[in-house]
Amino acid sequence: MNDDWYRNKKWNNRIECVFKDKLEKSRSSKVQYLKIQAFYLVTKKPRVALRLIEYARSIKENDFWEQELCLYESKCLYNLKENTKALEKVYESIKWRRKESNVQTDNIYWLAELVLRLKKESEYKKCIDILKEFHEESVFPVHDYWYHGYIAVFEERLGNTDIAKKECILALNFAQYKNNKLNNFGPKSKRILGIFKNKEDIIYRELLRINSKI
What we know:
Helix content: 55-70%
Radius of gyration: 19 Å
Structural class: mainly alpha
Strand content: under 5%
Shape: elongated
């Protein structure tokens, strides 16, 4: 287990015992520790993450962290193939975002990704509206890439090709290395797709396809 006892990427009985002991001894921030640990286990240990989220809710004093808890819960449910519940939870996360406007997460982009993965055509227009509702200028180029990229894909699938092409150009511009220096550190920083840490994301090939028609 690493020095940050609430950021475990692996989970077993020994790690769980240490985590519980540290959590019990913590005088404050218990919900935040549970939330952060759940985040690290969303993909590989979604059931464990859900238990941590459930416990966080049982001890929380207010609803400040609900936006993030619902977001991670949605991702867990998707990884457990409970797709309908996953979609419901990300919408719930966005409702909390409206209530706590000073708290911002990537929930609008997870909603867009989830809708595309589930091929929920009836949700495309709603996703566009939500992306526009919450989009703000960001110091992180990846946010602008996601914003323009998801809108481009949705608009193209809705038949609005002119809008899709314009958004596509903007998204691909943010995907170029020279515009993404904030997200490029380390020896591998010169790769062309600067905003992608490991591999191309779900919309990149779609954007290339749209761009080829311009």
